[in-house]
Amino acid sequence: MRYKISGKQIDIGEALQTHVQNELGSAVQKYAERPTDAAVVFSRSAHEYVCEATVHLSTGLSAQAKAHATEIYAAFEACCEKMEKQLRRYKRRLKDHHKDRSEPVEHLGANSYILASEEADSEPDSLQPIIVAEMETRIPSLSVGEAVMQMELAGAPVLVFRNEGKDGLNVVYRRDDGNIGWIDP
Fold first, then answer.
1. Is the pTM for the entire model greater than 0.85?
2. If DSSP states are collapsed to H, E and C, what string results for the chain?
3. Per-residue pLDDT tens for 35-50?
4. How far is the CA of 171 from the CAs of 158, 159, 160, 180, 184, in angstroms?
5. Largest CA distance in the chain
6. Which has the least CB within 10 A, 5, 72, 116, 171?
7. Please, are residues 20 and 76 in contact by the beta-carbon 8 Å criterion?
8. Nearest to 144 by CA among 95, 84, 83, 92
9. Which residues touch 54 (CB under 8 Å, ≥6 apart)?
10. CB 116 within 8 A of CB 132
11. pLDDT digits (tens, 9 = 90+) for 77-125
């Protein structure tokens, strides 16, 4: 597994990097068979240290965790525990443990736009939205169950994916009542 360990305006020592590689590596290997890479970023927020970790699996899924603590090692330990809990839940949700993908998840390319929000008091000059940013994004080909797991692991409120069973674009999202919604046009 490849590691990228960095700090935002914090010097990350060799001892912390070695600790992160050993601890995160053992936690991820328990529940994920083929992790590809991990990114761990340390930063400071007022009097607390913040640790953010992202682990990418060969199945195309990503797990993210974030934790705060007054000590940098404690922040990492809390983040590592959250990551381990997410991966444990992910593994339990897999219904068919002996099913392996023959290939990694296929991704389609798409454009992603960020639109400027309009002020409530002012009236827009035209109905065309103002584009603030334009980016390239990837849309994964997943089953509905995998899409729900990916959305929950990423902590995202919405996930757009290509349904493997029907070859159409679908959306899963978290509803206000806590349930998961699925849009299948």
1. no
2. CEEEEEECCCCCCHHHHHHHHHHHHHHHHHHCCCEEEEEEEEEEECCEEEEEEEEEECCCCEEEEEEEECCHHHHHHHHHHHHHHHHHHHHHHCCCCCCCCCCCCCEEEEEEEEECCCCCCCCCCCCCCCEEEEEEEEEEEECHHHHHHHHHHHCCCEEEEEECCCCCEEEEEECCCCCEEEECC
3. 788 999 999 988 999 9
4. 7, 6, 5, 10, 7
5. 58
6. 116
7. yes
8. 95
9. 38, 39, 40, 62, 63, 64
10. yes
11. 999 999 888 888 777 776 554 455 555 666 677 777 667 776 655 666 6
Q: Report all structural domains of the chain as residue ranges with CATH numbers, in order of start.
A: 2-93 (3.30.160.100), 107-183 (3.30.505.50)
CA 117 vs. chain centroid, Å, equals 25
- Asked if 61 and 153 count as a contact pair (C-beta separation under 8 A), the reply is yes
Contact 19, 75 (CB under 8 A): no
